[in-house]
């Protein structure tokens, strides 16, 4: 399936869309296609709301954000996000604030169809005063001192669609990720539909030579999209490195609304698809992010004699 | 660059803070650290006072052996050659909440006398003057690490405040008030450009225990937004030794990525 | 560390001992060493209580069993276990009965230091009438019909020690498992101490060539024991196959108390350690369980240029 | 062995049950199956009425492509060449409780008219006449699969009982009585050596819908320990076709591991 078809089939106005990938394998190209197709009124769920979220905000796709970190990695601020939250400029943004583990537990509850998930966070935090999702449950077992014990819980999140980026998958959707695997499996299982964008689609034999590497089995995947370099400016372990210069540049670009809109025009609206974005960046650029070889040693799965 | 030249370079604030923080890690086994000063401190401690120290990164990396100094907690060089890379549910659930972290490092825009932290907003949460990044994993690091070290470059009354604009990350005192049992002791060390504040555990507030050479107790008091408690004896922080600086500059961050 | 040292240091009379490995990588050799050292009054926690548990019962090591399946795989019955439960012969056995996911959730709660773990099982089951561990919690969020929703929970299990078998580890305890990985990581993280028994201890470089293969990091492991073929009669993917004949034979052996005790004498008490047990079985026997090669294809972790 | 010879061999009870069960899987996508009859049925369905069928094994294996017929749900041949192998928390939590299983196969020592199952004890739980293996994953398969098929070789009043000695694995009716919301519809098909009982969903009891050739409705009633409801029209089960038997014998289980 092409990215265009996948976004058009699985992302609708008003949907709750989870985009996951913790610094590694961020589904940027999918975010750009959502912008190109002009989706509106989305709820975006993403632990680390970073550049791609700022871009989707600036393109007017998003009315609600559910997140545990809203910043440009360690490289600075998200200009559009700050304008939206600090000044409701050009319009307000509904923001549900969690911590990282709170978000992880929401995906865990979603993936397991649980009504809630307990965690040992939030006691004494002001977060519960601004987020009605954070509630308490009394354990039915006595605490260490014999007294009843209270613990915070978070509600499940069940996105209409989860989109992730991965290194590779086979045609039927068995998805393999190495390096940081983050919360991708949970985000996919929590969702009603799942789109997996990959650096490459590989033969069945490649996947089946190492079934433990499959982080998400085919039965949980609704569409596989081949989109090389679709995680830029983040990285794909073993494929290309992180574009740190772009992260540093984003604070400046996004600080100025006009500059941000010009960037969107040049790199998203005026490119037909991610292939055009990639070729516009040019071969020399990609060479600067190239990585060398560090192969895993094989293990023996064994064969009955 | 010879050792001689290295050591004679004037010491930066980053170097001083890294060295001081590294000493506090003596004998520790696991540290949960973000990139920058905490990683520098932990890497230096690994070479000096805590040879068995393992840095656990929020991204899921345990036992990293990076070929280059990492620029983020998820840098590709942390993954290649690492001993283990865990999923986020395993990292936060089993390692952090499971109680395997001795020391967690945190930073903040604001801290109060109990070690509660604000990383969410300056101003009202609903209509903030400045929207900050928020918790990330800080709420969990505070709730679950045995103890927490805070490194604050800036020591002034706006950052060291009587009342936080918003408490993102509560220490155990606030948690207990609400009837929720914390698993760690909260902030035990705050390392700043002026000195070191310390706190033993639940029910105690931060107390000035050491100042950097040339800094007076009054200076620290003036730059703290609450009526700062002071230890009976305030030590003077031992300046970084030539060997500590050499290791930091030659082994830990030879390209001076963070030591600028 | 030798198996003798590990059991002597980490397993004490009266301890709660988890032995995990779901059909694959069952820590049999560790169970045998517990028998040799004459441990008493143990609480054994094991999802599938099978041959090794029957042997430990017969050796008088165990007074309490926590399990979700008490049978000889699909090959028949456990004679000693049935005598203990059906006739208190030669003594009673306290049995805490769960389902598989109930046990998994107990490990999950234990590993995460949670006071309880919710799951969508047990509604209407008689198990809650014989197991006080199964309790209910009301969700603080409304159910799908807007009404309060109830869900069962299980308490954490935090064994004094968890023992697992794995294919390989490095000297510091970074443990790699492939094929079925079961609930081993959770069982280890739930425990106060953890002993990992491996087919082989490998060089650091082997482990570090593939960090995603590390199921349990060193910080969670207290002892690494090299004990090749220590999972027999179960199997170690890529090392040796399952001894199905022994599984079939066990129903007969265990049905008769004398025969069982004679088996224990010959194969456990009269062997000094697992190496002797292995060599007593003989080379021809091991050749019959040998497996061929089916290597995983390598992945590239990348190297900064 | 030629096709001719194969088909002419007398049909065994295992073959009949496998073929009948396989037909019930028409169009299904995922089945949670133990080794033996359920795997034979699913493998045959994959070749006939459910080409997209994937067997998910309790051990964590998805999309197996075994070189030999597996002897257990954890057989090494299921792992080598599989599409995915999941941890048990992922298998039970995300796949099963997450609602990804269309049909779960279960067996039992006793079943009642609502499809509740006993696999724990014959007699009292505290001092049983026979201690059975217990739930395994059956409680979860029942609670979370969209529907459940039960294959019972033995059809007699002791197995098909008015009152279970112990309810290990409750269907949704019992769960709802206790105020716990089940996610599946419980047992929808019971396939035995006498015929097929069916149940549409919550609030309905099992009803005889088909008998094998030569079996009468009265025979089934006599062998059922409760007053068995009977459908208005009781079909006669179509005997296994030559092609079904050929596939079962030549492709699915050529060594006759389970077809003995």
Give a description of the structure:
The complex is a heterotetramer, with two copies of chain A (305 residues) and two copies of chain B (260 residues). With 305 residues, chain A is an alpha/beta fold. Chain A has twelve helices and 16 strands. Chain A has helices spanning 3-10, 28-36, 51-58, 79-87, 100-111, 127-130, 184-190, 204-208, 244-255, 257-269, 274-281, 283-288, and strands spanning 16-20, 42-45, 48-49, 62-67, 69-70, 94-97, 117-119, 135-142, 148-154, 161-169, 175-176, 193-201, 214-216, 223-226, 291-292, 303-304. In chain A, the strands form three sheets. In chain A, strands 1, 2, 4, 6, 10, 11, 12, 13 and 14 form a nine-stranded mixed beta sheet that branches. In chain A, strands 7-9-8 form a three-stranded antiparallel beta sheet. Chain A has a two-stranded parallel sheet with strand order 3-5. In chain A, a hairpin with a 5-residue loop joins strand 10 and strand 11. Chain B is α/β, with parallel strands linked by helices and 260 residues long. Chain B has one domain (13-252): Glutaconate Coenzyme A-transferase (3-Layer(aba) Sandwich). Helix content of chain B is 28%, strand content 21%. Chain B has helices at residues 3-8, 13-24, 37-47, 76-79, 88-96, 138-144, 172-177, 217-222, 242-252, and strands at residues 30-32, 54-56, 61-62, 84-85, 103-106, 110-111, 117-118, 121-123, 128-131, 147-152, 187-192, 195-198, 207-211, 229-236. In chain B, the strands form four sheets. Chain B has an eight-stranded mixed beta sheet, sandwiched between helices. Chain B starts with a helix and ends in an 8-residue tail after the last helix.
């Amino acid at each position: 399936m092409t990215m265009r078809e996948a976004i058009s089939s699985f992302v609708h106005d008003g949907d709750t869309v989870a985009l996951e990938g913790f610094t590694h394998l961020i589904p940027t190209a999918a975010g750009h296609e959502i912008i190109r197709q002009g989706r509106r009124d989305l709820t975006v769920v993403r632990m680390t709301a970073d550049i791609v979220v700022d871009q989707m905000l600036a393109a007017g796709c998003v009315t609600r954000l559910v997140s545990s970190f809203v910043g440009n990695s360690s490289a600075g601020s998200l200009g559009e996000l700050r304008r939206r939250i600090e000044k409701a400029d050009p319009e307000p943004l509904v923001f549900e604030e969690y911590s990282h583990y709170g978000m992880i537990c929401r995906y865990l509850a979603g993936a397991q169809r649980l009504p809630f998930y307990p965690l040992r966070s939030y006691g004494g935090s002001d977060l519960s005063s601004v987020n009605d999702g954070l509630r308490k449950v009394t354990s039915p077992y006595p605490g260490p001192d014999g007294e009843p014990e209270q613990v915070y819980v978070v509600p499940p999140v069940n996105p209409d669609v989860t989109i992730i980026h991965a290194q590779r998958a086979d045609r039927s959707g068995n998805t393999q990720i190495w390096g940081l695997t983050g919360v991708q499996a949970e985000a996919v299982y929590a969702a009603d539909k799942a789109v997996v964008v990959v650096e490459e689609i590989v033969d069945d034999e490649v996947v089946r030579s190492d079934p433990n590497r499959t982080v998400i089995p085919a039965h949980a995947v609704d569409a596989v999209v081949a989109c090389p370099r679709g995680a830029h400016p983040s990285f794909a372990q073993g494929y290309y490195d992180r574009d740190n210069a772009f992260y540093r540049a984003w604070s400046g670009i996004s600080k100025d609304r006009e500059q941000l809109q010009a960037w969107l025009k040049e790199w998203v609206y005026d490119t037909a698809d991610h292939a055009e974005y990639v070729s516009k960046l040019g071969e020399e650029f990609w060479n600067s992010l190239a990585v060398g070889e560090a192969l895993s040693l094989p293990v023996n799965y064994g064969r009955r004699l | 660059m010879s050792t001689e030249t290295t050591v004679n370079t004037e010491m930066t604030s980053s170097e001083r803070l890294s060295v001081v923080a590294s000493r506090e890690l003596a004998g520790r086994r696991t540290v949960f650290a973000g990139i920058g000063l905490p990683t520098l401190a932990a890497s230096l401690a690994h070479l000096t006072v805590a040879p068995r120290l393992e840095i656990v990164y929020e991204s899921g990396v345990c036992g990293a052996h990076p070929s280059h100094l990492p620029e983020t907690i998820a840098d590709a060089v942390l993954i290649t050659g690492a001993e283990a890379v865990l999923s986020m549910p395993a990292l936060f659930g089993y390692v952090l909440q499971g109680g395997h972290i001795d020391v967690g490092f945190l930073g903040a825009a604001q801290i109060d006398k109990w070690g509660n932290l604000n990383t969410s907003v300056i101003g009202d949460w609903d209509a903030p003057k400045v929207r900050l990044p928020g918790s990330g994993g800080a709420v969990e690091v505070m709730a679950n690490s045995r103890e927490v070290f805070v490194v604050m470059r800036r020591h002034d009354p706006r950052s060291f405040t009587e009342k936080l604009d918003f408490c993102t990350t509560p220490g155990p005192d606030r948690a207990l008030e609400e009837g929720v049992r914390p698993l760690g002791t909260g902030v035990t060390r705050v390392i700043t450009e002026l000195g070191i504040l310390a706190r033993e555990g639940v029910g105690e507030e931060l107390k000035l225990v050491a100042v950097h050479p040339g800094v007076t107790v009054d200076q620290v008091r003036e730059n703290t937004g609450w009526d700062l408690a002071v230890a009976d004896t305030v030590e003077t922080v031992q300046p970084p030794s030539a060997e500590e600086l050499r290791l930091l500059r030659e082994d830990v961050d030879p390209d001076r990525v963070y030591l600028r």
